[in-house]
Each structure stands twice: as C-alpha cells, then as structure tokens.
Amino acid sequence: MANKKKKNNQKTSASPLDFIKRVLQGRLFLSFDFYRRNWIYIVAGVLMMMMYIAQKYETQSNLEKVMMLTEELDNAKTDCVNASARYNSMIRESHMKQYIDTMHINLTSPEQPPYKLTSK
Predict the structure, then answer these.
(1) pLDDT tens digits, 97-114
(2) What angle do CA 29, 35, 38 make, to 5 degrees?
(3) Kindly report the CA angle at 13 between 8 and 15, in degrees rounded to 5?
(4) Which of 7, 38, 43, 78 is the most buried (most CB within 10 A)?
C-alpha cells in the first residue's frame, strides 16, 4: 500500500524533464482527462467561433446587398435626370413653335417682352 502511494506521489510531482517529455509527445493537452475537465470551455469556444463566422458571412452578404442597391439607386437617379432632360427639351420654345405649326393653330409669339403695369 505504501508503494502505491509512493507511485501516485511520483506521478503528481513530475520532474521538469518528465513535463518536457510529455509536451514533446503531445500528451499534456491532448489527454482525455484534459477534455473531460474543460469540455464546457471547449464547446463554448467552438460555438463562439461558429457564431463569429456566421456573423461575418451575414455582414458580407448584407454589404453586397447594400452595394447592389446603391448601384440600382444611382441608375434610377440617372434615368430620372435623363427623363427630366428629355422633358425640358420637349418644352423648349422652338419645339413648341414647331408643334404649333404642325397643328395649324393660329398662335404667334409676342414681338415685345412682357411689361408690368403700374398705377400712379
């Protein structure tokens, strides 16, 4: 019985050489006992890494969506400016004169500019 206690004490009070040997052999952190004691931390760490990866993926997909919608908005603004320019060109005076002439309406443009009537 005393021999068993002596052997257990030798295992718990390992020499630095034994510690280095266990590290080099990979038995220090890869033992079943290590995982059994720290399984909660390991699972929590893996879950946090998975949540980080999922959040990064979602952020990237949202960023792509924002870029696509920004491009679509720019195209819509360009179309709006083009439509406004076409409308303004259609209502220019020369076009209106041409339109009046084709419709054979007896309208003419005034020779003199308009003036204000003031009362004294």
Answers:
(1) 787 888 888 887 778 888
(2) 105
(3) 125
(4) 38
CA distance 5 to 13: 12
How far is CA 59 from its chain centroid?
5
Tell me if residue 34 falls in helix, strand or coil: helix
pLDDT band at 10 (very low <50, low <70, confident <90, very high): very low
- How many CA atoms lie less than 13 Å away from 75 in the CB half-sphere? 6
pLDDT in tens, 44-75: 999 999 999 999 999 999 999 999 999 999 99
Contacts of 97 (CB under 8 A, 6+ apart): 109
Is the separation of the CB atoms in 35 and 42 below 8 Å? Answer: yes
Whole-structure pTM value: 0.48
